Amino acid sequence: MRTHVIAVANQKGGVGKTTTTVNLAACLAAMGRRVLLIDLDSQANATSGVGLEKIEGGSVYRPLLGEGTLLERIKSTAFPNLSVIASEVDLCGAEVELARADDYLNRLRVALQPIREQGMFEVILFDCPPALGILTLNSYAAADWLIVPLQCEYYALEGIATVNRIHGQIRDNGINPNLELLGVLMTMYDGRTRLSQSVVGEVREHFGEKVFDTVIPRTTRLAEAPSFGKPIIHYDKYSAGAAAYEVFAEEVVKRLGLK
Q: What stretches in the chain show pLDDT beneath 70?
């Protein structure tokens, strides 16, 4: 069975990246898929978003430096089929430490290989930091697919232009020639405004079928859910945000070709 590794990334902050990673992971798990969420952001919002605390020594940090394994750091959550490798404060230092290491861009890919080989999970999701640093580049090198969340605002295309350029460089430089863009997800959509409608139209014109059909609405319930340590489908199953992420998860399953 193939394990699909997906990096959810955008170097621009506040675009719904962590919200998307957490809720996609939860929806896939609720569909019966075995999912591993790896929190690469030292802010640990994805970790707390599934009800866990930062775990000292429990992140990818040490394994990336060759100390211990990722397998040892997999933690269960309260949600069936959903496991996590949590974040920790020490991840702040990973950018500096990894820069001194040999083959520093491939550290995550190498560390992840035993999990891939065991076929423990159908989908592995990286929640990337909101910056194009070494951890994000490691996720690009280790992933099969890239999902780019894009906020429905005026400067949206600037963010994706940078992601596209780095994606192209990762492929062309031979770091990960197999990395594919799974899709662009429009987030924080407000159908009452012309701006949201205009941005979605422009992005669809620019990227065509690479833009997911699902559009994630801007809702209070989605914003509240992380403070309760729950993905939206477990916080308010019948909300508009839950419905949107459930449909988005179905789109992802279809694009991945999962049975």
A: 159-160
Q: Which letter does DSSP use for residue 26 in this model?
A: H
CB contact at 8 A, 24 and 122: no
List of E strands, the chain: 4-8, 35-39, 75-76, 82-85, 123-127, 145-151, 180-189, 211-217
Neighbours of 171 (CB within 10 A): 15
DSSP helix/strand/coil, 181: strand
> For position 15, what pLDDT does the model report?
84
Q: How far apart are CA 162 and CA 108, in angstroms?
A: 22
Domains and CATH numbers, the chain: 4-251 (3.40.50.300)
Backbone angles phi, psi at 219, to 5 degrees: -135, 150
In the beta sheet, which residues pair with residue 217? 189
pLDDT (0 to 100) of residue 159: 67
Alpha-carbon dihedral sign for residues 126, 45, 107, 110: negative
Question: Taking Cα atoms as reference points, which of 39, 56, 60 lies closest to residue 112?
Answer: 60
Instruction: Provide, rounded to the nearest whole percent, the portion of the chain with pLDDT above 70.
Output: 99
E strand intervals along 53-117: 75-76, 82-85
Buried b (16+ CB within 10 A) or exposed e, 127-136: bbbbebbbbb
Residue 172, judged by CB atoms within 10 A of its CB (0-12, 13-18, 19+), counts as exposed
Distance of CA 99 to the CA centre of its chain: 23
pLDDT of residue 115: 96
For 45, 93, 95, 97, 249, the CA distances from 42, given in Å and listed in that order, are 8, 9, 11, 14, 26
